[in-house]
Amino acid sequence: MRIKTIFLIIFAFSLLIAACTPKTSPVDAQSLTIMTHDSFAISESLIAEFEAEHGVKVIFVRGGDAGTTLNQAILTKQNPVADVFFGLDNTFLTRALSEELFMAYESPLLEQIPAAFKIDPDNYALPVDYGDVCINYDKTYFSAHNLPVPTTLEALTEPQYATLLVVENPATSSPGLSFLMATIAHFGEDGYLEYWSALKENGVVVVSNWETAYYTNFSGSTGQGPQPMVVSYGSSPAAEVIFAETLLDESPTGSIIGPDTCFRQIEFVGILKNSSNPELAKTFVDFMLSVPFQEDIPMQMFVFPVNPHADLPQAFLDHVDYPEQPASLPPELIDAQRETWINAWIEVVLD
């Protein structure tokens, strides 16, 4: 009888121990690390759904701007600190591919993506989103001064637009570099410096970064800056409405969308070679191309989904002007000439 009682006590105690011992959950069992730039954002609830569905903990490692993050990935490519790299754009694509950072992956969702975005035919880098760097203008200024909004790059050198444009230094600013690319795409390598010389003579203002250009110099944002035109983003007019303190029926700004006035940036994702979990990395890439993720992109990063099945927020439908002929350059040409172009621009515009 005593033996039976002792056995029951031991059995009950073992059940208590088992109940109190933390169980190893799928989240504890594996993790997936995503390396990305500082501007990356996505809804926490969406990531939580992915984690729950696949039994994984997603960890994001941010490395600065796109160029700096890419440098880190290159330096650690033999022993990568992440499984997936997101944020590579078409201005750095060839460099990443030449470094052989990624393993090829033909996601089944690529069938839904338009061919114009699939720049890498070998599928080492898969397109996720795109955005247009455009010249934004202050609607009130042009209306009050009875001044027509310029529709071409050439028009910006006309006397009536003297001192009205602020741009960012392409050596220190991503949108500044994109606008420089637009002028090279339009005027060619033999003609872009002559164009910039004409802009300089017409009083173009150059600042170091987008924040200064948009929030200090541009009159359309604060209503107090001296320049009514600024190099910014095609989604900026929608952002003005979304973040307005009072409800707006119309954005106070618009975008100049004439031929080659906007430069299209495409962002890519790639699975890093030597990933510790390549199969799960493939699943995450599929997730990024899926409609739920794609529909979350605009309000998080103010860029556009590459999957045409993804619906856009109403503000993007109502307040964004879409260029029919955005400027573009071959990624391999950009990679080969980027520094040469920038240095030549500095000599003409800043010296």
Features:
alpha/beta; eleven-stranded mixed sheet; 15 helices; globular
Describe the protein.
The chain is of the alpha/beta class and 351 residues long. The chain has helices at residues 2-20, 26-29, 44-54, 66-75, 93-98, 139-144, 174-187, 192-201, 210-217, 219-222, 236-242, 278-289, 291-301, 314-319, 331-350, and strands at residues 31-36, 57-62, 84-89, 102-103, 126-138, 165-168, 205-207, 229-233, 253-256, 263-272, 304-305. Strand 1, helix 3 (44-54) and strand 2 (57-62) form a beta-alpha-beta unit. The protein starts with a helix and ends with a helix.
Outline the secondary-structure elements:
Elements: H1 2-20, H2 26-29, E1 31-36, H3 44-54, E2 57-62, H4 66-75, E3 84-89, H5 93-98, E4 102-103, E5 126-138, H6 139-144, E6 165-168, H7 174-187, H8 192-201, E7 205-207, H9 210-217, H10 219-222, E8 229-233, H11 236-242, E9 253-256, E10 263-272, H12 278-289, H13 291-301, E11 304-305, H14 314-319, H15 331-350
Helix pairs in contact: 7-8, 8-15
Radius of gyration: 25 Å
H and E string:
HHEHEHEHEEHEHHEHHEHEEHHEHH
What is the strand content?
15-25%
Helix fraction, binned, reads: 40-55%
Tally the helices: what do you get?
Answer: 15
> What would the principal axes of the Cα set say about the shape?
globular
Structural class: alpha/beta
Q: How would a textbook summarize the main sheet?
A: 11 strands, mixed
